[in-house]
Fold this protein.
Amino acid sequence: MHRMCAQGVALVALLLAVSGVAAAGDLGFSADIGLEVTYAPVPPASYDITSDLTLGFAISGVGLVSETEFSLAGFSSECMTIGVDLGAVRIAEEIRFEPYFAWNDLSFNLSIVGIEIGMDWIFADIGGPQTPSYSMGTVFRLASSVACGFSITSLTGFGVVDLVNLLDGIDAPFSHELLCLFDHLDALCEDEADLDVTIVDGFYFEEELVRLEVDYLGMMASNTTWFDAYGLAKMLFELGYRFDDPSLRFLTTMTLDGSFGIVAAGFILDLEIETVRFTSDTMFAAPTVPTLIPIAFDGQRFGVSFQVCGVLVTSATDFDEAFLFSQELIGIEAAIGPVTFASLTTFDAGGFAEQRVCAAVAFSGVVLFTHTEFDFTGIELVTFGFHFVI
C-alpha cells in the first residue's frame, strides 16, 4: 500500500514537473486526474467499497494512463497504458494486474496511403490466480478504404478468438448505426466496457474475420465472414438503402452458419423527422425444434426519441417471440448550464425492475459526478467522484 502511494505521489510530481516544462516549450501537454468511489451492498447485511484512481498525461504524441482499483480487501487491480503516436505509426502497450499479472498487449499500427497494417502481441494468464497458466496470442490486422465508400477489414488470430471485439464488438456495422437508440439506452449512466479478445491455450490458427462494407449513393451493404481452424464458421450479410429527405433508412440482415443454413435474420426501419426519431427492429431466428420453415419470428423492438424544451426523451419497448411485452426502457436526459442529468427506468413483465440516475456538474476543468442504481429491494450501487483535466 505504501509503495502504491509513493508511486502515486511520484507520478503526480512528474506530471507537475513536465507541466512546467511543457508550458515553457509549448509541447501540447495535457493531464487528467480522476477518482471514483463505489458503494455496493452485499446481501444479507454487508457491503463493499471500491475506489478507482486514474492518472494520465499526454505530451508530444506520448501518452500514459494509469488506473488503480482498491477495495476493502486492499489492492484489486492495476491497468497501465502507454502510447506513442508518430503520425503514420502508432505504438501502444497495455499491462494489467488483477491483482497478479493478467494481461500484456503490445500493439503496432501503420497507416499509409489509405492502408492500415497492424499487429497485436498478447501474453496473458488464462488459468487464474490459484493455478496460473500463461499463453500467447497474435492478431494481424489489414484494413483499407477505397473509392465509392468501399472498405475491407481482415483480422487473423493465432491463439486468439473473439476477434470481433477489436471492432468494438460490432458484428453488423450498419445495423449498429441504425439501432443506436437501443445502444444509447443500454449505455446510459453506465461506463463503456473495454472488450478484449480471448487467449486460448496453444499458439495455432484459431480465427479469421473478413469484413466488406459499401456505403455509396444511399446503398448500404456489408458482409462479415468468420473462419476457424475447421473452415467456414459463420457469415453475416446486410443490405439496405437510405433516403435523405425525410431521413428514412431500412436494412435487412441474414446470418448463415458454416453449412450455409439460415440461423438468424432481421429487418430494421429507421425514420427521423426533425427532432423525432423512430426505429423498428424485427428479429427472426432458427427454431429450436425442426420445422418446415427455416426461421421463425424471434422478437420485436420499437425505439422512439424526441426533444421537449431541451429535454431528450428516449424509449425502447421489447416484445418476445410470442409478441408479449418483455421490457420497457425510458431514458430522460437534460443539460442546464454546467449541470447534466440522466435517468433510466426499466420495466419488465412484472412491473418496475430498476432505476439508474446520474448527474454531473463541470466548472474550471473539474467534473463532479454521481451515479445511483436501485430496484424495488433498495439501493444496488452508489458511485461518486471527480475528474480534473489540466
Observations:
- The two ends are 27 Å apart (CA to CA).
- The helical segments are 2-25, 173-178, 180-187.
- The CA atoms of residues 109 and 118 lie 4 Å apart.
- Residues 2-25 form the longest helix (24 residues).
